[in-house]
Fold each of these.
Amino acid sequence: MKYAVIIPDGAADYKCEGLGGKTPLDVAKKPCLDSLASRALCGTVSNVPSDMVPESDTANLAILSYDPKIYSKGRSPLEAVSMGIEMKPDETAFRCNVVTLDGDPAGGYDNLRLIDHSADEISTPEAAELIKAVEAELGRDGLTFYPGVSYRHCLIWRDAPDFRNFSRPHDIIGQCIADKLPPEPFVSMYRRSYEILKDHPVNLARIGRGLKPANSIWLWSPGKKPALPDFKEKWCVSGSVISAVDLLKGIGLCAGMTPVNVEGATGNIHTNFEGKAQAAIDEFKRGQDFVYIHVEAPDECGHRAELENKVRSIELIDEKVICPIYEYLRSTGEDFKILVLPDHPTPICRRTHTGEPVPFMLYSSADEREGVTCFNEDNCEAAGFYVEHGYTLLSHMIEK
Ligand SMILES: [Zn+2]
């Protein structure tokens, strides 16, 4: 038996005025998915407990059968693990942005304004040099800054102070930082980073090119590594995770699964859809039983409120991901199951994640049944099968 789980991230939505009162899943032309859904078990599933924030880590942990109430520790440790950092139980990972602060330095650090959480999406090599400079001054035994991609970096701190209430830099753009700063010892690190970075040659060159300098660190989302039970031991299947997102790779690694890198997998509508499908097929061919394919494009369109692109991204996932994987599995002659569901809705009108139940369809080549004619929110709800705890959904798919 082979198992494919395909996640069109954020595809679920509300009824949209721009679509004549329909949802993107309603209007998207997705012949392969609809054909499978017409012969599948269809229903809805709640991936995000009602008292939790619908973050990507929460929803995807649930789909992979890990109760987010127990195992969700925030995104930073998962990103750290995906960067190849081996975290120990007494270490805390912090997301470390390099941000742009603006204002007169003579007025004091605390009176500057945060004007860009990404420093004009600074290039990875430039940011790496800046993080190296910060590490040289602020790093010490048990406290290490690791360079990541663009403005997204990582601080690993052994026995870190237990403060969690950091301001998220993307939430305070344009604001004075005076009342957004964390307590000591964090705030002193911020102030020193500004001294290190504000006249750094990399930043002077950026200013010369008309770009914003990355002149301060900004920490948020601290967390310890989640101790996920090994996926293979839990389900007796070997698994791989295919995603452009560090978070998903991190969950896979923490669960003992194999993360697969796909060239050109960006997460947006220009992502390498074919490459993801081919990577999934290659994983099956080399003997993996379970492949988790996460495609972020519909979520990104939801955040950007791009209605047409959201519909198009669902169509592309059908044509270039679901169809080739289905055709491959069918061609092998072996029994297989395909599970398709968004992790959470990212409604166009909200431009952010919401926590409602999402539609799912579970197709089994050995057990075709009457499903729904169009895979969408209403039809799957009307099908009447509701899974209250998302982390139990996989038990309907995998027979141990
Ligand atoms: Zn999202």
Amino acid sequence: MKIQTITTGSTLVSSATPDRSTHCWKYAYTGLFQRRCKRIEVPVKCYYVKVSGHSVLIDTGWSKEVVEHPMRHLGFGLWFASEPVMKQGESAKEQLAGQPIDAILMTHLDCDHVSGLHDFDGIAVYTSKAEYDYASMERLRYGKLVKGREYRFLDFKPDENAPFGQSCDLFGDGSIVGYLTPTHSAGSVIYRISGADGFVLIVGDNGYMKDSWRKGVLPGPLYNADNMKLCLKWIKEQSEQFDCLGVYCAHERE
Ligand SMILES: [Zn+2]
């Protein structure tokens, strides 16, 4: 198993985005009515995974388009809430030039995860149907970036070991399993990658950073707060398993 972290620049967000307790207002993560100089900068990561003969990209980070035309690419609303910071050559497409990708797996469809998708053509993209339906409805949160691509839906089956009872064994060999987690968004997915030595979890924004699951810090954008609390507890338990090799979040600063 090989996991390559790809940092596609960063994003300037309200401190309420990773930690909602920093502000009283429920929608403080949008950055409305806050000084932009108080924003914090967090990395935007995606992961290139090789396991059991499969090569997949999990999330896509920022598109190379944001270097020159951030507002045109994102639309004003998304740009305002999550201003991208990226240099030429830092997009996933540019960093992975020439490497094979069998499939792109989405943890969810927020702009900092789906933006880079627009740089890749002809590769199957997987998400959950719940996420696609929700993202198609909630235009304010997701904007226009979700459109213009074809998606395949993960085929979830009942699984008593899954945090919310649903999992999808992507290649049928147990190497990459997606867990449906209605937490940060309606159809967020955590991916478990299993190799000979153990497993890793790629959790997207379920754990915005390590403190999310280590200390139960709740992020700003939430679809279901109770589910998120359960999920962070589940991630912490998984991280303590003897064969857990790591938990990878999308915005960890380390
Ligand atoms: Zn994110």
